[in-house]
Amino acid sequence: MEWLVGTILQFKYSTNQLFSIEDHKGGIMPKKFFLIFVFIVCFSLLAEGTGQGITAEEIIKTMTETLNPEQSEAVVEMTITTSGGQERTFVYKAYSKNSGEKNLMKYLEPGRVKNQAILMLNNADDIWMYFPGTNRVRKLATHAKRQKVQSSDFSYEDLGSSNEFIENYNSVLLGEEEKEGELCYKLELTRKEDSDAGYSRLIVWVEKENYVPLVIDYYHEKDPELLEKELILSDIEMIDDIPTPMKMLMYNKLDNTKTVMEFKELIYDVDLPDNLFTEMGMKK
Amino acid sequence: MKGRVFFNKSVFIVVFLSFVLVSFADAEELDIFGYFEPQYVFLYQDGNSYQLNSDKLRIDLRSSVSGAEFGADLIYNLYFGKKSWNFLDFLPSVFGDGIPPEMRSLFRYKFIDTLYLDNAYVRMSNSKIAFTLGKQQLSFGTGYFSNPVDLFNSKDVLDPTYEQTGHNGARLDVMLSNRINVMLLYSPIAEVWENSGKLLRFKIGLGHFDFVLTGYEFRDRLTDFYSAFVRDERRRLAGFEFVGQLFGLGVWGEGAYNFMEISDDFYEFMAGGDYTFESGLYVLFEYHRNERGKSNYEDYDINDWLRYYLGERKTISRDQLYGMISYPLTDLISLQLLSILSVSDGSVAFVLMINYNIFENVDIDVMGNIYAGSEGKAYSRKLGNGMLIRGRVYF
Predict the structure, then answer these.
(1) What does the alpha-carbon distance between residue A45 and residue A63 come to, in Å, rounded to a whole number?
(2) What is the pTM of this model?
(3) What are the DSSP calls for B219-252, one per residue?
(4) Which of A232, A261, B142, B337 fits as disulfide partner to A249, beta carbons 3.0 to 4.6 Å?
């Protein structure tokens, strides 16, 4: 980032110098014309290189909108690989509304969690769990947001907080970089001072062409230099004209575990009733 | 004779289930699942060692027919080891010594192999209303160890999350808005309407909190074990519940005031909180006061003990403090420590539990419990120290 700021400042300083000369002399000398031309070309190249003037906030906003269509209904397979190499596979139906602000997960497999449900409202600020064996619904406090969902490497916050990147982080465009074979915007997101987000900062590589993030590095809540998790999104398909990563792989660098989430079925063109995202909807 | 009754009952249930399965042959989908649960209990009590083991098979059925949802589960329990127990062996010696030998058999309890329909219900619903009819899970309240507003179930504080049996009822849930619900329930627990259960619950969500107001009319059963006389009386309960968070802590509570037809009115409440640390360490605590319990352990009599064991009373002592610490040792193994303290008499029990998800659909629980109170107190050593190994294979 420093190089970018430095270049812009240098450009501003140089142009000010030029125009002060121009003002002083009452005209523009040919040599200065050349210098202005060079700077304009450089600036144009610089603008091209940083997304044709697009800001980090705009990239994050577009990315968030791409990742969170208005509504969705999906069947998701989640496979967890523990540090010991054992695998556990969960299959659940996932419903989402209001661009990810409301989320409902209903487990289909394995048998030990069958029919359990998790409801997350207000971007996972309110979480309820339904246990069919006792027909009880238990409300979880927000301290549970950062806990693992079914021992996976995804927290409730990771799965249910759709506006996470916009609300909780300040974003800066670092430049462009090739990642996973694609040209990407590279952004740094730093947690806002008043935010209680679970990570101190994020590095996000967003594919230039369709604004889908390809890699997100999550840094530890208390140590901004300690890489905690890495999320790799792949198998991008057009679902209802929206580019969608069908596979997400989360590595937990601290626990040496990983979790793969794959969409087995996914549609965006649905009309989910509001009452699906209620206690009654969890039990149905 | 008991064997014959059991056989007849078993045949009836098998025939019933066959009928159900055949009836649903045309249904769009019949989902069959459940689990097998072998359990081994070892107990060391008063210098003697015992074991009571069991095999439990649960088969769940779910189906949707013409917009209605059918659900049922069948439970088959087989017991082996020491199946016959006598309550007097666990009570303070002063009670047992006072009972003539010929009357000791009155306090015997036997675990009998059983096959029964645990739940069987039909549920019809649209976007705003759900009506459930039949034997169903009815459990209320926000408490983990204790639920003053739940008159249907009695939790085992050593194993409070273990599933409860179903109850017959007609239940109507009406969703007035996304966070406002009304529930009406009629449960025919007695021979007449007057003594059956009637329940009204109004639930509202405000901010990060859920609040519930409850009104019950119920039958309260009180057995006098000295005279073997059973008395039923009408009980009316006005209760409230809440769950939410304060300063980052999860908080919840329940309160109930009981208006009794014959005996003295009484109140009961609990309050609890929890927190999950960044390491995954989870801490939970609950305080429970039951005015029906006694504050001086020297006043406990044989009726108090047996009413508690048989579920007529939620606690024997007045004030209880429960605590739980849970920690994920690995992604597949978790450790739990429960402490159960009777504040009234100072006795305490500890439970250590390890849960291991050994295979995809196989769980193993190992649980050990220690009662540390002196004789005559709620959690006295006289109750014996034990160990439980429970496997569960889901299918």
Answers:
(1) 24
(2) 0.84
(3) EEEEEETTTTEEEEEEEEEEEEEEEEEETTEEEE
(4) A232
